[in-house]
Amino acid sequence: MRAAPQRPAAPRAHDRDTGQLAAFASVATLFFAWGFITVTVDPLIAALKAIFSLSFAEVMLTQFAFFMAYGVVSLPAAALIRRVGYTNAIVVALAVMIAGCLIVPLATHFETFAIVLVALFVIAAGITILQVAANPLAAALGPPARSHFRLTLVQAFNSLGTAIAPYLVSSLLLAGGIFAVTGTASATVQQRAESLGHIDLAFFIIAALIALLAAFIWSVRARLQAAAPQLSAAEDTSIGAALRSRWALLGAAGIFLYVGAEVSIGSLMTNFLHQADVFAVSFEQAGKLVSLYWLGAMVGRFVGSALLTRVRAGYLLGLAAAIAALLCLTVRLTPGAGAGVAALAVGLVNSIMFPVIFTLTLERSSASRAATSGLLCMAIVGGAFLPRLAGYIADLTSLRAAYAVPLIAYLCISAFGFAAARALPGAPQATASRLAH
Fold it and tell me: Is residue 172 situated within a structural domain?
């Protein structure tokens, strides 16, 4: 009698955990990369405003073009991930980002602001694909009970990129050239060309770094794909499923408001800190100080990761958003440097908001994780609309008055957090099941 063929041994728990840890580390590099690139737009705004003589409302079209990509590309990104898998979609995303970076020199060659907007949209389209793939991937790489901790921790690496970028990029974009002009003197053609050349150099460097990252991800693609959650063919991933879920809609509103508030503050920060009645520093120095805003978010995410193991996520979110609203009110009402300190401090309490809103919504949504994640990533389009509104207010009144936009947004997010703390995870699904019967 022949012996029965042996089945392949199941992966040992230790090997599986090691694989998930390695995959998590790979995903963390992606969070760092898109954080760095996203915040590069902040000093770029100050540079473009000066080079093209734009109003605040006009220059905020940069953020409008960048974040509109989330509204346009999120659904196609989800379809791409289902078709080619997580790893291949990530590599495609990085290639799209490189293409966008290489459009920027074309824009500066023709000295056309509109082409800059096209380049930023293409870069953001690649980042959108990364977001749609990497957020649920990071949440799934480990025990479900620790998803809040895991996504908040990996967002800390995103914050590391956002903390480094303003300092490095401001040193290049906001130094020399048109920014060497003092007093009432006008910039020469050569100084303007120098500033445009600085923009070219910055995006060439970014393109090269993304290419290295793409090569790294490709080299570990097998390990990353093995650790990725399985995509079920029977799962309803359509956006319609998420639109029928009350908690998915509330969570999308929370993401819309949070991203809009965070981006509004970061976008205006360089010009705000430069003002004579705030810090009265040069544009380059003000741009470098914006790093403190994003550094606060990084520190807060590490601290928040620890707090989330002891404090219910909804309550912590509600408290953090309430403090952020109070800081915005302080910016609005406090004269002098105190307003600048309060504006920078918002970054610290911003830290946990995105990952906690994201995971609270995934837990409570009656739609599938894929459908809910797609809607939440579309909601990042808030970064296109709220900064534009803040820019209009800044033009009509003052930069201080523009902080009313994030103030209102944070109050709404605080209400969402406390409401989510009172709603048990899975409750909407249970309710939907009872209604179906």
Answer: yes
